[in-house]
From TrEMBL:
Record Pfam families: Usp
InterPro entries: UspA
SUPFAM superfamilies with a match to the protein in the record: Adenine nucleotide alpha hydrolases-like
UniProt-recorded name of the protein: Universal stress protein
Coiled coil: none
Domain UspA: 147-270
Highest taxon in the source lineage: Bacteria
Source organism of the structure: Pontibacter cellulosilyticus
Length: 291
């Protein structure tokens, strides 16, 4: 069973905050969450001289905390134990990573605007630095989740994400589908028949699925789809499958074996995050990777 001891919700004082708080309530009503931390960091380097001149000794932390408290009271009150944390630090990513460690946060919720409104730079940095799984909620996403898609490449990372997805589906009565995107070694065409290569590739992948189902009986009945990349990236094919299948949640495993943090996220999760996907994206680290 999926249970979340502590969850962090990152707010930025924009209109998406209300949406995030309401979605947090939706999560807490469906999953056992012990405590939620609503957080915001005042980036001190962005406070202009004009601001300081006009407002002087104004305690901006108290003002912001009060603003967040109003939203939480309206959309979250009496739902789950929670706390509002407002900090004043020059580096938002570092202070949020510190909060994750300090409060043993298992899941962080991030809001995401469409690309025409935001570069997404901070979100990408947070994905690389936060030592916990991250649930990205686009501003256009719905709260109701019925159909889940999980890509798999047969790595330990993706198998962990798949098993979590299956637990979530069983717990909440959701429909789960697996997708595997495969590529053909096109440099050998036309020496090798493309039709023959495709048939062979699918035989190999089906064998891998059969072996996976033997090792993890709980996913034996989960339907899977094989998709050839065929000139598209893996992320692009996953995106096309999302649109085709009308899914409500995408669960992707994150790599963590690379000692260089900037390279540990993986190219597919990075590309998916940067797309204008209008459903929640759950980026999952295993406990072993986090440790």
């Amino acid at each position: 069973m999926i249970a979340i001891d502590s969850m962090m919700v990152c707010l930025d004082l924009s209109d998406i905050d209300e949406v995030l708080v309401r979605f947090t309530r939706s999560i807490c009503e469906r999953l056992p969450v012990k405590k939620v931390y609503f957080v915001h960091n005042i980036k001190t380097t962005e406070l202009s001289d004009e601001f300081r001149e006009y407002f002087g000794d104004l305690n901006i932390s108290n003002e912001i905390e009060g603003n967040i408290a109003d939203i939480v009271t309206e959309h979250f009150a009496n739902c789950t134990e929670h706390e509002i944390l407002v900090s004043e630090e020059p580096n938002t990513e570092v202070i949020l990573a510190d909060l994750v460690k300090r409060y043993s946060v298992k899941l962080t919720l991030l809001g995401k605007r469409m690309s025409d409104k935001s570069t997404g730079a901070l979100g990408t940095k947070l994905l690389r630095i936060l030592p916990c799984s991250v649930l990205v909620f686009p501003e256009t996403a719905r709260f109701d989740i019925a159909n889940v898609l999980t890509p798999i490449d047969f790595s330990d990372t993706s198998v962990h994400a798949l098993r979590l997805s299956k637990s979530l589906a069983d717990q909440l009565g959701l429909n789960l589908e697996i997708i595997h995107v495969y590529k053909l070694p096109t440099q050998y065409f036309p020496l090798i028949s493309e039709e023959k290569a495709t048939r062979k590739a699918e035989e190999v992948v089906k064998g891998k699925f059969a072996d996976l189902q033997k090792r993890h009986q709980e996913i034996a009945d989960v339907p899977y789809t094989l998709v050839r990349a065929a000139g598209k990236t893996v992320a692009e094919r996953i995106y096309m499958q999302l649109e085709k299948g009308k899914h409500d949640l995408l669960v992707v495993g994150l790599k963590g074996h690379n000692p260089i943090p900037s390279l540990s996220l993986g190219s597919v999760p990075t590309e998916l995050y940067n797309m204008d996907i209008d459903i929640p994206l759950w980026l999952v680290y295993s406990e072993d990777v986090i440790k």
